[in-house]
Amino acid sequence: MKSWHRFAICITLGLIGGAAFAVHQVRGGLADGTISNGAWSTGKSFGTVEASVRTRAQVALSGLLALPAKEAMYFTAKKDSDGQPLDGRCTYLVSGGELAGRWWSVTLYEGEGWLVKNSANRWSIPAHAATKGEGGVWTFTVSPESQAGAWLPTGGVKAFDLTLRLYHPSAAVINNPAKASLPAIKRLGCT
Q: Could you give the C-alpha distances from 75 to 41, 51, 120, 166, 179, in angstroms and in order?
């Protein structure tokens, strides 16, 4: 084999291997500087100039369209409060108290950041739509079947995640998201 063939093969294999490694790193999830808080996780560098190239690529791939933390913080849950993966064939009760921000919403996504197709054409629960209870506690249900009160349909997908967007969060949340008071996600049962 001629030497230029060897160089061409090595360069081609290097490009293919490098591209495969880059895709693996970006699709590996938002693990670069992740902060956990119960079932929820976030990153302090989302939407900032301090974000690494890897974090920027991961945020772009997930479709987060991240704003700076003073404008919005994004918390994602892939598991319930007991650590079990969120399953679209199950019913969950999401509940919380007052969140330290001006406004919030929770959106349900499938896989790589896609909204879940459902007959209700509902993909998010905003703060004003959650069912208000005693002592300022609010709730909503996440379920494949229609539920009374505030309900977010799963479309029966195998796995999903929830993204909590907290707009204009307090300085305490921005500085220490691991200590923020965030909603609980309790599995009620599965079909």
A: 5, 16, 25, 8, 13
